[in-house]
Write a sequence for this structure.
């Protein structure tokens, strides 16, 4: 291998090592919860039906409304999925509100201004998804200006998870409502994101250069 080839080889190897050592960008906050439908439910599902759901909070979003101990993040809740009785629902662009009062921390996600998709028995269309939890002051987050993380059901003293559907026979009445009792909850860092295409391209280029250098070296041995 010539001196120039060796320089190219080690340059490619160095670039690859730098990329491998670089920390991955944060993927946001993952909220996962399960619950059961209340027996006093007026929606299309029977009481006791199991509900599981998750969504991702984009912690790079800047608050759109700020006040004393309160912040609202528009379009912060994405990738919502929910299953009830074998039916699947999804949502994007939900709104997050956080605030601390004199006694409680308050955390609310809703899709009133977002996009929901999916329908249940009889064609009932999901029109609202509200996820509200409260805890003692300092239990949910130290600063409402930072999106909550590290919360479990043990930190929650009150929960109000409510869902609403439009009855296909009386559209826009939203007369089908379900209250869900929280069973489990975790709010944690989302998993490591897949590398961006540009990063993958650089890694691929580095690997190709290393492979080419090794092949040339073996062919000349």
């Amino acid at each position: 291998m010539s001196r120039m080839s060796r320089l190219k080889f080690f340059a490619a190897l160095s670039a690859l090592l730098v990329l491998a050592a670089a920390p991955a960008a944060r993927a946001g906050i993952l909220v996962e919860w399960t619950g059961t439908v209340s027996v006093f439910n007026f929606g299309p599902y029977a009481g006791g039906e199991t509900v599981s759901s998750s969504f991702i909070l984009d912690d790079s979003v800047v608050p759109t409304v700020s006040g004393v101990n309160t912040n609202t993040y528009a379009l912060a809740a994405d990738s919502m999925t929910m299953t009830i009785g074998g039916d699947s629902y999804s949502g994007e662009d939900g709104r997050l509100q956080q605030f601390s009062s004199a006694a409680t921390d308050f955390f609310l996600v809703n899709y009133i201004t977002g996009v929901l998709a999916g329908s249940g028995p009889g064609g009932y269309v999901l029109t609202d998804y509200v996820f509200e939890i409260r805890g003692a002051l300092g239990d949910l987050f130290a600063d409402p200006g930072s999106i909550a993380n590290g919360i479990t059901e043990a930190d929650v003293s009150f929960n109000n998870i409510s869902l609403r559907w439009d009855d296909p026979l009386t559209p826009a009445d939203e007369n089908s409502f379900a209250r869900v009792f929280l069973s489990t909850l975790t709010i944690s860092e989302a998993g490591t994101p897949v590398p961006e295409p540009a990063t993958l391209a650089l890694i691929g280029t580095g690997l190709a250069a290393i492979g080419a250098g090794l092949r040339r070296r073996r062919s000349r041995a």
The first helix runs from residue 3 to 21.
